[in-house]
Input
Amino acid sequence: MENQLIIEEIKKLKAERNAVILSHFYTRSEVQEVADFVGDSLSLCKAAVNSKADVIVFAGVHFMAESASIISPEKTVLLPVPDAGCPMADMVTAESLRDAKKKHPDAAVVCYVNSSAAVKAESDICCTSANAINVVNSIESREILFIPDKNLGAFVSLHTDKKIHLWPGFCHVHENISGEDIQELKELHPDAEFLAHPECRPEVLGFADRILSTSGIIKEAGSSGSTEFIIGTEKEIIRSLKRKYPDKKFYPASGKAFCYNMKKITLEAVLNSLRNNEFEIHVPEQIRVKARKTLDRMLEINGN
Ligand code: 13P
Ligand code: SF4
Output
């Protein structure tokens, strides 16, 4: 079917089912165009809480749809492609976390939102890349077990006097950006501002002018006086940046910074999701209630 026909059908079904489409910035641009809301992980959590829809179609990866379902159990939450996952979220399991908690009994567990519901249920508080520093500094414990992203955890440890135990997880998309990539781009574009996501490696963050979540990068590109930017995150956001700020120039930090899981969500998959109620996310109630507390504690912190 042609894209225009698919889009019309999606709009019709959305109205019939009182559905909204929430999309992350890393999905395909044509999917972002049919979305009611496009955002980073934190704003998507908030959009799920505030939505009056009966159905949420999550154009993103599994942990995002699961978080929406944890917060809004009364809504039908659909993930159009069931195996659109996040390899980093899979780097920590509830079982491995329980073992680590035994080794660090005094540490509070701060889990990145890129984690399963079962892991959230075993954690004390959640965070996203937009609020991780504020979350860590808001809790009483002097000792923190930060899971699963070692790069975000290392970045946070530079902005707190708490003792942080890092987990060896990482996002392969951001790990694909190297210090050499940035050095080469800086030589080619000496006036460009380098905006980096905190999932990048420490050596890459060392070159950054600003370290921000995806929403933060988009806002900074608009408010900054600079006209050229090196963008240190998943390369799809370059399209949004160019569309939003056509007079500015954007260079991806690496052509290899590509999240194939986000790209699994196609327009056809969104249409089938609405048509066939595919694929409904169910979180067992016992896990959901505990995971919700972890997410709620984060949402109560007014620091993003
Ligand atoms: P944010 O949406 O918090 O910027 O995180 C990026 C990411 O990798 C999402 O999976
Ligand atoms: Fe996971 Fe990285 Fe893809 Fe985000 S960009 S979903 S952290 S693999």
About this structure: The first strand starts at residue 19 and ends at 24. The radius of gyration is 19 Å. DSSP finds 15 helices and twelve strands in the chain.
